[in-house]
Amino acid sequence: MSEHVVWTQWDDLNVPSKFKRLSPATTPVEGGDLSEITFYVPWYMGGRPALELTKQMPNLKVLQVPNAGYDDAIEYIRPGITLCNGKTIHDDSTAELAVGLTIASLRGFPDFVRNQDKSEWVHVKNKSINDRKIGIIGFGSIGSTIAKMLAGFSVEIIPFTQSGRDNTTVISDLDKHLPLLDVVILILPLTKESKHLFDAKRLALMKDGALLVNVARGPIVETDALVKELNSGRITAALDVTDPEPLPKDHPLWRAKGVLISPHVGGNTTAFESRARRLIESQLNLLASGKALENIIIEK
Question: Which domains, and CATH codes, for the chain?
Fold first, then answer.
């Protein structure tokens, strides 16, 4: 009998010889018998339907999500299951989008596209990313990657963490820094503490003309308060995540002033597959060697 039965979205994943490999080709999630699975990697961007399948896996030991965010997986963890996240898989892709959204918003890319659609040549003077003070709220692997990418610009970076580790600024001191930041980039996990971290009060503390970039989770920002601030014209925003998500067609955030919205594509690039496979294969080799897994979030 195999020590572990592994299900991933890849039919050709390399697994240790003593493990059994399952995939959609051998074990479809719809109608297939999932009861023997002990190591499960939900298909990427599968959302709640992919996580719900864990209820059909009585022998599950490891839930390895392919995302850096794990808040939606916590409710599926029961005694005997270890939850690991996809830390490192999305570092570069999410960081490049954060930097891209920042530059696009500051330099007015949305207006360029709208004017191009109308064949209109409108010359404007916009903001440069250079000479800006940028706060990165959350300084894990993605946050530090954002800082590395920004290092090529003439910017001052202020990293924030909950603990203030490694000479970062503690998030509890955020309010006194917000009036001084030109750009605020959110890349922290969604927790009880971080939900609505940017509420009406905190948004009001942001500097006039500041840009809020959210590549973390939508509920970290209180949407109604953000819409109000945007429509006042006092701040702008670039969002890869929203609350609710996906954003309904009639939601006022779509039509708010000064907002650039991308549809939660931070990690979904051509860089995903090779990095995801490498991490998962490494995890399986650790498991086969009796070593501790990486990226453990919850261990019951």
Answer: 4-89+271-299 (3.40.50.720), 91-261 (3.40.50.720)
